[in-house]
């Protein structure tokens, strides 16, 4: 358990709520708390991303990044490669390669952009739409299995709201946006 959460779980009745009175919790170090928060956030993301990817690969032959890209194209019909790059904080070249692979697999098609001949509009094919719809059931089911068995729906909502606020602040400040 990270220091941040170990301190938070100590109550007046002792660590974890058991035992005698141990007095007030030790003061926390804000820098250490932030480092623990970062470690926990990154390790949770990595483990969830990998576990969901394993499940999607086993059941649908795709990985998490492919599912996310397909879902984005489905939810943003006629998006551009630049829209994908912005949404995922990746370079234009990387986003274009993703769409190249989707096209090669028959999951997406590039259509002419009547407003800008230099770019294309991306749409899912029928096969791509079917794949993302089927994979979505697996994605949601596995996330529920992994997350809600560890923390309740109320905690999911609270953590989700905090992370959404942090994400919005980072996006507004253009933090972590690739150059080029």
From TrEMBL:
Chain spans, region Disordered: 8-29
Q: Which residues form the HTH marR-type domain?
A: 34-175
SMART domains associated with the record? HTH_MARR
Pfam families for the chain? MarR
**Database matches in PROSITE patterns:** HTH_MARR_2
PANTHER family membership: TRANSCRIPTIONAL REGULATOR, MARR FAMILY, TRANSCRIPTIONAL REGULATORY PROTEIN-RELATED
What this protein is called in its record is Winged helix-turn-helix transcriptional regulator
- Native source organism of the sequence: Catenulispora pinistramenti
């Amino acid at each position: 358990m990270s220091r941040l959460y170990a301190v938070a779980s100590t109550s007046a009745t002792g660590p974890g709520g058991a035992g005698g009175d141990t007095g007030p919790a030790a003061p926390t170090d804000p820098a250490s708390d932030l480092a623990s928060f970062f470690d926990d956030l990154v390790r949770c993301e990595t483990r969830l991303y990998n576990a969901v990817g394993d499940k999607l690969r086993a059941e649908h032959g795709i990985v998490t990044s492919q599912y996310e890209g397909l879902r984005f194209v489905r939810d943003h019909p006629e998006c551009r490669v630049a829209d994908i790059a912005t949404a995922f904080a990746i370079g234009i070249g990387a986003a274009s390669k993703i769409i190249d692979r989707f096209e090669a697999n028959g999951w997406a098609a590039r259509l002419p952009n009547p407003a800008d001949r230099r770019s294309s509009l991306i749409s899912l094919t029928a096969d791509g739409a079917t794949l993302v719809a089927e994979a979505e059931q697996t994605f949601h089911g596995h996330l529920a299995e992994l997350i809600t068995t560890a923390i309740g729906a109320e905690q999911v909502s609270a953590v989700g709201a905090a992370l959404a606020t942090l994400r919005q602040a980072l996006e507004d400040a253009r933090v972590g946006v690739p150059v080029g």
